[in-house]
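Section 5.1 Outputs to date
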Amino acid sequence: MSAAALDIFGETLAEDAPDASEVDALAILGRHYGLTGTARPLPGERDHNFHIKTEKDGEFVLKISHPAEEAGFTDFQNKALDHIALVDPTLPVPSVRKSLGGEAQFAISVAGSAPRIIRLVTYLPGVLLSRSPTSVAQDRNVGIFLARLGKALRGFFHPAAGSDLLWDIRKVAKTRPMTADIADAGHRALVERAIDSFEEHAAPIIPQLRAQIVHNDMNSYNVVMDASRPELVTGILDFGDMIHSPLICDLAIGAVYRWPAEGHPLAPAARFVAGYQSVQPLEAEEIGILFDLIRARLALIANIASWQAERFPAKRAYVLRLITEVWTSLERLDALSPADARRYFLDHSNPE
């Protein structure tokens, strides 16, 4: 990848963040929050996150941001969580724990690094969606949850919502240069066709559609399910990719992770959309481009993951953890025409 590609996607991913250890995490916890406990590292794309367990004060996630992260964007996340708690207090999302100084976030040097933004949020117990058995009820319930989250964010705004985000599905065409890091020619062709279809069918329609701040990353590692009843959603994590975007883009992202099963490849996604529509009905123009948005998100994952895997070998397993499912989905969806896919969604995603 050329230096020009780095100019397109910014400097945040140009290098890994400096390491932060469990010792660093516990020192921050004690000094700034007056808490003691244990710290276990959690995986993350940009930040260093730690699962904190205390004896008397519950469980938390300590978030140590990448040095390139801007304070305005983490403030965006804090304010969004506060807004959701106010509008829909029954919706299980993390809540912000303020420091001893009453701060939702602060910046300090960690292990000699440049200043990094520190935040502490509550930990949501359960099992990640990626590790939960799937079911028809789960497909629908995850859709319902995303619709509720969208409604809770509907009246919220923040200046950082207009940030130029790498994971903005609307900018998938800008990732074309990243296809050079996809080794398999057939896979590269799948990605190219998905981007071409997005540009032809979805891009001209998107500016006409309703938009608001959305979560923008309902992937299967960000959704928490009940351990004993895996069809029930108990929370959603990681608000770090929030953006002001069309609602249908947010829905398409969640639909991607209802991976094609036996039978029609869009069946799980259609059940997910039906659940969503039972809370938030879609407009005809939105349903009309949903299939192209799903394929565009898959192309985005393939491009970014392949690009990152080449440049950050230590994170290769993490960034490629879903690549098998991505290629399988792209292959199965490539066999459908956009017109047939639109008809399927119209016929099978109505709320019951």
